[in-house]
Amino acid sequence: MKPTAISILALFVSLLSLGSQLKGPKSTAYFDKFLVPAKVSDFQHRMDLANLDAVRERQDYTMWNGIGTPLVVGLTDDHKKIIVRPTVVESELPKEHEGLRTALYSVAYSAQGSVARNFDLTTDEASHVVIVQFWRMGNPQHAKDWSPIYAEFADGELTFH
Question: Partners of 152 in the beta sheet?
Answer without folding.
Answer: 133, 159
